[in-house]
Amino acid sequence: MKSILFVMLSAMLLASCVMPVTQQPAPVTPTEPEKKSEPPAEPSEKVPQPPKIKSIQWDSIVQPLVEQMVNANGLEAGKRLLVDSVKNNTNGLLQTLKATDAITDAISSKQVFQVVPKSQINAARRALGLSSEDSLGLRSKSVGLARYLNADYVLYSFVSNHHDQRNLEMQLMLVKTGEILWSGRGDVN
Hints:
single chain, six-stranded mixed β-sheet, 5 helices, 6 strands, elongated, cell outer membrane, lipoprotein, enzyme regulator activity
């Protein structure tokens, strides 16, 4: 056992002894980088343009429809009206917020109904867990929101394609029963 221990200690002692070796540093010769001729830059692919939204004069489309609606039989003046946001049922892009604002402005100017303010609509949407971008897609959701806001009428509007022509369709509904009291259609140019 002593001999094994002696051999191990000797091996360790010899391993720790290193003879100094002086090595010459490698010669460094400065060179200039090669100039590679780069091929001329090719024009990059053109970035596709986002689809352009056609500016629509919503006022001229909405005015005749609102005129028809306020003159419809069976409507009570002074009642609360919820103007629901316009739905886009087309395959294109539309500025539906501008359309909704045009409808609201046209109805407000007639002073037949008390239009529910946007601030109340947005607060009700938050309370019901609906985002402001939710277009409520279904008439039943629109009526439910109108009931929450104690509105008497709700105006449901949507833009659709019909034989390659876009149409704005509006329906005035009685909140209490969901009955459609008036409907109208106008061409969207």
